[in-house]
Amino acid sequence: MFSPGQIVFAALFVIAFTAILIWMYRKDRTWHRTQYNGARWVLVFFIAFIIILFILKFLLKE
Question: What's the pTM value of the predicted model, to 2 decimals?
């Protein structure tokens, strides 16, 4: 289905992309902590909202 060259290219691409992604994240870690300080609370409230919707769905089911 894939030639050996394509498999090697895909493997090297995944390795390089992951390495660059990790390197860039580590480089910007302090900036992310200051810019996205309250983002965790947004995620918590979003998940809580989804859970409340599911609870209401099961409670109001007739």
Answer: 0.53
Give me the number of domains the chain comprises.
Answer: 1
Please choose, from the candidates 53, 50, 30, the residue with its C-alpha nearest in 3D space to the C-alpha of residue 42. Answer: 50
Q: What pLDDT, in 10s, does the model give residues 4-62? A: 999 999 999 999 999 999 999 999 988 888 888 888 899 999 999 999 999 999 999 86
Sign of the Cα pseudo-torsion (15, 16, 17, 22, in order): positive
How many residues in the chain? 62
Backbone angles phi, psi at 36, to 5 degrees: -110, 45
Domain that includes residue 21, residue range = 4-59
DSSP string, 1-62: ---HHHHHHHHHHHHHHHHHHHHHHHHTHHHHHHHTTTHHHHHHHHHHHHHHHHHHHHHS--
